[in-house]
Design goal:
By secondary structure, this protein is an alpha/beta fold. It folds into two domains: 146 residues, Rossmann fold, CATH 3.40.50; 182 residues, HUPs (Rossmann fold). It is 34% helix and 15% strand. It is built from twelve helices and twelve strands. The strands form five sheets. Strands 1-2-3 form a three-stranded parallel sheet, covered by helices on one side. α2 links the parallel β2 and β3. α1 packs across α11 and α7 packs across α8. The N and C termini lie far apart (43 Å). The chain binds glutamic acid (GLU). Glutamic acid binds next to loops.
Length: 345
């Protein structure tokens, strides 16, 4: 930051899960994050979200990087791998273990419920895959909890959210550039989410919140299916902030200032196939491997995604870099419906 530019450096991120080849829906989201970061003159970090090693497909990280490169989208600094950041998560987890809610309850508590227990007791989810845990293990008394931990009973760790919507901490508010003002009740819409699974793997919500915080991410652009997750991630980040643990040394100087404020959020409408199926990896004809093999040019893929983003009136071929100047989320803000896409390009 120079004396002439008092604005803190903006940091965006691409956070793909290396579970397969990118498809058009992933490219659409990546293009939005890339254009947003470049438009504001910010940095863009690439974070490979490979924390859930059971779901990782070997080499998918290289395919993603190669496809981004082929599409004309770059990033700053080396790619960060969640699987190599375990010591950061461990340190933050240990801090969280020492924390309490204003009510005196511990911030984290062990949950001994099986998946079947939770399914039976949870509120039905509202279409984004989120089911609210009813808090069964939060009621366990200290002595019983100790006994079960000492006995080695299998358990995950959950983060306790305020108990009722009367609590002033309960409502998490944030502004979304596309969906407008958002407010989620932690107690009634999120519940006590898992921070560390019973197999010891840190959960997506925790790893991502810790990473966004420690990398000083100030701009988050991703699918609207994560709108609700944003509320719990902000709750997690609030505790990260209180930890006083430093940001990653390499980014610390560049990011001070950017981290104090809530990030900028833009949650994108999702892309469905024309048969109504969510664009998933099984939608092979639009995965990058198939597109490239069929001779599709990068400019055609970018043009199609730019049209989906409302940045171009028609899906005409274009270079990603030529879209930076005119980029905005205004068209998506006007029309937030999920997009339908034919299986053909
Ligand atoms: N890794 C997630 C995905 O590929 C994205 C998570 C995020 O943007 O926070 O769906």
């Amino acid at each position: 930051m120079t004396a002439e530019s008092p604005r803190p450096l903006q940091i965006g991120r691409l956070a793909p899960s290396p579970t397969g080849r990118m498809h058009l829906g992933n490219v659409y989201a990546a293009l939005a994050a890339w254009l947003d970061a470049r438009k504001v003159g910010g940095m863009l970090r690439l974070r490979i979200e490979d924390i859930d090693t059971y779901r990782v497909v070997s080499d998918a990280d290289s395919w993603i990087m190669d496809d981004l490169d082929w599409l004309g989208m770059d990033w700053d600094g080396p790619a960060a791998y969640q699987s190599r950041r375990l010591t950061s998560y461990d340190a933050m987890f240990r801090w969280f273990m020492t924390q309490h809610l204003p009510s005196g309850e511990p911030l984290l508590y062990p949950c001994f419920c099986s998946r079947a227990d939770i399914r039976a007791a949870s509120a039905p989810n509202e279409g984004d895959g989120f089911s609210r845990y009813p808090g069964t293990c939060r009621q366990i008394g200290d002595a019983e909890r100790r006994r079960r931990l000492d006995a080695g009973d299998r358990h995950s760790w959950r983060i306790a959210v305020p108990r009722s919507d009367d609590d002033s901490d309960d409502l998490v508010r944030f502004h979304d550039e596309i969906f407008g003002p958002q407010a989620f009740s932690l107690s009634s819409q999120l519940g006590d989410v898992i921070i560390r699974r019973s197999d010891g793997v840190y959960a997506y919500q925790f790893a991502t919140a810790v990473d966004d915080w420690s990398m000083g991410v100030s701009r988050i652009v991703r699918g609207r299916d994560l709108l609700r997750s944003t509320a719990i991630q902000l709750w997690i980040q609030r505790h990260c902030q209180e930890s006083g643990q430093s940001h990653d040394a390499a980014w610390r100087n560049k990011t001070m200032g950017a981290i104090r404020r809530q990030p900028f959020f833009a949650h994108l409408p999702l892309i469905d196939g024309s048969d109504g199926r969510r664009m998933a990896k099984r939608f092979n004809s639009l995965d990058m491997g198939a597109l490239r093999a069929s001779g599709t040019r990068p400019q055609e893929v970018i043009g199609r995604c730019a049209w989906l983003l409302g940045v171009l009136p028609e899906a005409t071929p274009v270079e990603a870099k030529d879209l930076i100047g005119a980029f905005s989320f205004a068209a998506l803000h006007e029309d937030r419906e999920d997009r339908i896409l034919d299986a053909e390009m």
